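FAQ: What does a ligand-bound record look like?

Like this one, built around phosphoric acid mono(formamide)ester:
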Amino acid sequence: MDKCNRSLISLADYSADKLMYLIQMAQRFEQCPNRRILEGKVLATLFFEPSTRTRLSFETAANRLGARVIGFADPKVTSGTKGESLKDTIKMVSNYADIIVMRHYLEGAAKYASEVTDIPIINAGDGANQHPSQTMLDLYTIYQSQGTLENLDIHLVGDLKYGRTVHSLLAAMRHFNPTFHFIAPDELRMPDEYLRYCDRHSIRYVEHKEFNESTIAQADILYMTRVQKERFSDLMEYERVKDLYLLKLDMLGKARPNMKILHPLPRVNEIEYSIDDTPYAYYFQQAKNGLYAREALICDALGITLNEL
Ligand code: CP
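The answer part, i.e. the structure of the complex:
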């Protein structure tokens, strides 16, 4: 397999078979997360934007697989502050590591990185564009909680404009006959390019402005998102929309018994803390699944197959 195929920039072009194969791999890692199959390998984590879960779960995954980890969590400590370009940074790190996991604030940065190096790049989030490793753990979590990815009602709530996790999920779910409900204020509605994407791929969707007990009664998955202050150029606009879509305990009265609430996290105030103790809350399990999904993605990018596990 060539380097372009081994880099993970987006899951949009992955087939249903490939996604199910990665879910199987993640299941294997859930059964046994510690497997020293990457002994002698080095994984670099280059985080140009803040992260807790993505960076730490990738680093944990590498450690549990026997690899060593290098990298940075804050670009201010790198020679980027002296004017070094992203291209040169990637070329330098490629001299030291076997694989790079990169989060960057610019859309397209991960793709660009994959074009200037021979080692695999895993996109850990590029601006408001894509977050494929999050999507892989989301798929794993949906499969784990529902027993299938097929024919589900998935309600996406909150910041659908800047939310790279919802953009990635939309594309990956297209194989599985979902019905999406996009619940957002005008300012944060799903961008037209993604609505057109749904139309092109015959993905059913309904847009809502209301967020109440009735709107979410038909959900199998209620996917909450944070309104991302850091993506707004106009902070007044952020103030206007930040508290519009808050999930409260008394909104769950009509929820389906199988319904699970997901959230990529971090949350600010969009899910009331009292919901954490209900059987609907699944976001902490979702974050835990990040370890297994990322073990699978690292192995896949390094050419290790399910048969070798
Ligand atoms: N879900 C997610 O990307 O979390 P972090 O920003 O903490 O990595």
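Follow-up question: can I read anything off the structure? Yes, for example: The CA atoms of residues 198 and 204 lie 7 Å apart.
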